[in-house]
Amino acid sequence: MKNINRTEFQAFPYHLVEPSPWPILTSFALLTMTTSAVMYFHGFANGGELLTLGFCLTAGGMILWFRDVITEGTYLGDHTSQVQKGLTLGVALFIVSEVFAFLSVFWAYFHSSLAPTIEIGATITYAHHALIQGNRYGAILGTFLTIVLAILFTALQGFEYIEAPFTIADSVFGTVFFASTGLHGLHVIVGTLFILVGFFRIISYHLTDHHHLGFESAILYWHFVDVVWLFLFIAVYWWGS
Asked: Is 39 exposed, middle or buried (CB count within 10 Å of its CB: 0-12, 13-18, 19+)?
């Protein structure tokens, strides 16, 4: 098959995105998941089933969306250097919006109030440096350990919810506790999916030492979740106790 040079048919370095159903479908899936989570916490019938459905729809939408983005960046060559700069800026703005989301939760807790942690940022940092150095085995190992620790963290968080002597409706503390840790837990799950996609892309030889923007963005997001957990642990578990 003949390799087609982009300059033969496009005079600019930007990517004209094709219409995609995944953003709007994923948005409705997230709406279903968050609404059903509120129903579940307040004891509504079938809240748990709807929450599971919303999570599955969200995960499915993300997987299909990732599939299209991977195809555009890896096989079609749509992610030029100029496009990569725009994607990096988009990830940075997304994390800024996430900062303000968590800031609102912390503000509610501090205003109303005037578990052991797992450090999983080190393993993904090791994987990143290994990938840059061309150490494919180290990148796979570090990413795999990150995924295992993330799943363990999520499982322990769920066990804590089951064993908690209070509920989200008991008090202001209960509301803020479940809202803040639940919001963080949701971000851990999303970050785990990001890292999982990167893991399979490393195995599939999609990523190289100089072409791994998606994986790098996932790592940046993961470190943001790490930092949020440090503040959350100090505020809710240490100071709140």
From this structure: middle
> 219-233 burial string, b = 16+ CB within 10 Å, else e?
bbbbbbbbebbeebb
Q: ∠81-99-152 over CA atoms, to 5°?
A: 90
Query: All domains of the chain, ordered by start, with CATH?
Result: 21-78 (1.10.287.70), 90-241 (1.20.120.80)
134/205 Cα distance (integer angstroms) = 12
Which amino acid is located at 37 in the chain?
A: A
Answer for the pair 91, 217: CB distance below 8 angstroms, yes or no.
Answer: yes
Provide the residue count of the chain.
241
Residue 238: what pLDDT?
75
45-79 CB burial, b ≥16 within 10 A, e <16: eebeebbeebbebbbebbeebbeebbebbbeeebb
pLDDT tens profile 179-234 = 888 888 889 999 999 999 999 999 988 888 888 888 888 998 998 888 888 888 88
For residue 60, give the H/E element and its range. Answer: helix 47-70
pLDDT in tens, 62-93: 999 999 988 988 888 888 888 888 888 888 88
Question: What are the pLDDT digits (tens) for 86-106?
Answer: 888 888 888 888 888 887 777
Tell me the C-alpha to C-alpha distance, in Å, between residue 49 and each of 40, 63, 142, 168, 239.
9, 21, 34, 19, 35
